[in-house]
User: Which sequence fits this backbone?
């Protein structure tokens, strides 16, 4: 490949000297020169001011003019390249004057045929390259800082209104109003969550582009992580009438060292895509380990029976903003960022992602990641269609009695049953309300003792929990019926009580609440852990929070959500207002600080509160993940990422 020509401007009023200089330059094998010759000082200043040349050789004497004046004016007008001053005879004073004026070197014309001329040219061009590199680096750093500021601003500006949209929707869904607008509120909430998901994808991709995405490694229970993913994705699969199965091909490590959030994000994205592009059939997730380059890696495969992807289009799906199905059928939305993010995340986890797909037959995505050194880690054959890690559960109480667990999801059914069995009760199972009804009818017909408690899932095929409860009471069943439900909206408890339920437990099932129900219905036999007490209906120990947020809508919805959790909440809209409020009354449990306030930073305010009110816990609320170093330095107790919702605040309270 031909070397790029170096653009050289020669300012020389003697034609013979121009010809000699050109000959010398052509003899330099290290560079190819594109030479432009100018003899007029005025024209030289004009051309140099355009800053289009890589280097300039400037004669000291230009007729009656002084080359130094050309040098000074050219630099003043913005010429950035190196300038070498040429003269007919050596003169220390002229040498110093030229260097002081900005020349990089000073050459006597009689030396131009020697090695010093070649060294001077090479040195000048090398200096230019170094300077260009420095300027480009500074420019790139400035652009990255600008991108960071823009992303932080964009994240804050989008997450803040999303807090209001999702928060008010959530409040309405918890109110009696939801009966009149349940479908509409559901549409608003789902679309708001979709916007949040897209925002997170864009921000993740932006962080990856500027190499700002960091992994947070920690020890993770693999079985619990998989159960979480299964529980989250099962509803989406059922909505489309699909079967979702998790399997392990061999014993797997119980504990791995990964970024749990990112692994969950990858699996959910891939399973969600499989559900999205599959109209009928099943999605199967397999897990196994395999040694690659002397290291044991953890593998997952996600297989669907969906549309499949043509071979020529398979490479495109790992590129940002590519949507194969959307382009072909316009049937599937999204920004096309998920797989690109998965690919980048896996590369940071020292893993890979691959695809095996045939049109009309479905697709299989296979991913690998480094789980840390798992050579000495205990392993189990995890049947992920069950709920693993159950042997680690220890019941805090002992009871006796007969319990029926009714749930169409086998992993949750077995989990609840194991918890109950570990407390001493006899457990039986049913897949749906009809099967539970048949079991109770058989008991009554045979004159056997009925179940003491029935734990009944609300949403099941064949017969749901509500219908089953009504029929059980009609049969004369006198035992306790406890609802297992993910729907915990306001008013649901009264509705279930009217249908014949004695109590309810929200999903995911809290083992402590489960044991409280068992003790209440079956009687306490032996107490192993005396600290477990029933949760009171109303919290008499009112907490007090100070919320510092300048966006009126976001502040109001956060206050309403906190007050729905029995937290007395005061709002301050600025640093000044916060300081005034604390001066008047510092009896707060926590202060919630927005990162961006009109008169300063929430982090600065956090430092002030730490110094003057050390007993108050500080919680940063941010639309963009704050700098982890600053958080550690200020010893911030907690960080909440917008949009704020009821679940986040419940954990905070």
Assistant:
């Amino acid at each position: 490949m031909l070397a790029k020509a170096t653009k050289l401007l020669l300012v020389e009023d003697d034609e013979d000297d121009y010809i000699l200089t050109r000959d010398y330059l052509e003899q330099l094998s290290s560079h190819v020169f594109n030479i432009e010759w100018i003899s007029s000082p005025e024209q030289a200043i004009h051309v140099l001011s355009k800053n289009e040349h890589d280097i300039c050789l400037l004669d000291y004497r230009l007729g009656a003019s002084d080359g130094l004046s050309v040098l000074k004016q050219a630099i003043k007008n913005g010429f950035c390249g190196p300038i070498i001053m040429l003269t007919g005879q050596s003169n220390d004073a002229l040498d110093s004057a030229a260097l002081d004026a900005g020349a990089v070197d000073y050459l006597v014309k009689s030396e131009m045929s020697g090695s010093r001329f070649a060294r001077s040219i090479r040195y000048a061009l090398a200096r230019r390259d170094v300077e260009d590199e420095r300027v480009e680096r500074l420019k790139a750093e400035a652009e990255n800082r600008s991108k960071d500021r823009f992303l932080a601003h964009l994240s804050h500006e989008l997450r803040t209104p999303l807090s209001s949209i999702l928060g008010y929707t959530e409040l309405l869904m918890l109110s009696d109003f939801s009966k009149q607008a349940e479908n509409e509120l559901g549409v608003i909430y789902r679309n708001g969550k979709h916007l949040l998901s897209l925002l997170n994808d864009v921000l993740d991709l932006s962080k990856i582009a500027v190499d700002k995405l960091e992994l947070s490694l920690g020890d993770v229970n693999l079985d619990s992580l998989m159960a979480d993913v299964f529980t989250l994705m099962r509803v989406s699969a059922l909505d489309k009438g699909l079967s979702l199965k998790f399997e392990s091909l061999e014993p797997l490590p119980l504990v791995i060292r990964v970024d749990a959030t990112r692994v969950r994000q990858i699996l959910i994205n891939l399973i969600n895509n499989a559900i999205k592009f599959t109209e009928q059939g099943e999605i199967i997730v397999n897990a196994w380990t395999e040694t690659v380059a002397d290291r044991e890696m953890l593998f997952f495969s996600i297989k669907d029976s969906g549309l499949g992807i043509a071979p020529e289009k398979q490479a495109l799906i790992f590129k940002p903003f590519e949507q194969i199905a959307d382009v072909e059928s316009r049937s599937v939305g999204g920004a096309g960022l998920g797989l690109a993010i998965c690919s980048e995340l896996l590369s940071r986890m020292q893993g890979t992602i691959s695809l095996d797909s045939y049109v009309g037959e479905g697709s299989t995505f296979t991913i690998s990641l480094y789980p840390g050194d798992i050579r000495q880690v205990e392993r189990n054959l995890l049947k992920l269609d069950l709920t693993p890690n159950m042997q680690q559960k220890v019941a805090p109480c002992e009871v006796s009695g007969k319990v029926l667990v009714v749930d169409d999801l086998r992993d949750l059914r077995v989990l609840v049953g194991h918890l109950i069995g570990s407390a001493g009760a006899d457990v039986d199972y049913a897949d749906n309300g009809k099967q539970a009804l048949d079991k109770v009818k058989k008991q009554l017909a045979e004159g056997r003792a009925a179940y003491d408690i029935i734990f009944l899932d609300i949403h099941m095929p064949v017969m749901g929990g509500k219908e089953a409860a009504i029929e059980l009471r009609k049969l004369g069943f006198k035992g306790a019926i406890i609802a297992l439900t993910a729907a915990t909206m306001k008013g649901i408890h009264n509705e279930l009580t009217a249908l014949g339920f004695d109590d309810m437990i929200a999903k995911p099932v809290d083992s402590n609440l489960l044991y409280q129900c068992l003790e209440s219905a079956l009687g306490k036999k032996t107490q192993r852990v005396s600290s477990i007490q029933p949760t009171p209906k109303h919290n008499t120990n009112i907490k007090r929070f100070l919320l510092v947020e300048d966006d009126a809508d976001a502040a109001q919805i956060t206050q309403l959500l906190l007050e729905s959790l029995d937290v007395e909440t005061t709002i301050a809209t600025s640093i000044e207002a916060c300081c005034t409020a604390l001066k008047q009354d510092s009896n707060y449990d926590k202060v919630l600080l927005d990162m961006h306030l009109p008169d300063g930073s929430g982090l600065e305010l956090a430092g002030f509160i730490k110094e003057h009110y050390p007993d108050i816990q500080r919680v940063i609320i941010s639309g963009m993940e704050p700098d982890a170093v600053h958080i550690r330095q200020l010893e911030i107790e907690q960080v909440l990422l917008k949009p704020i919702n009821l679940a986040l605040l419940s954990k905070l309270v």
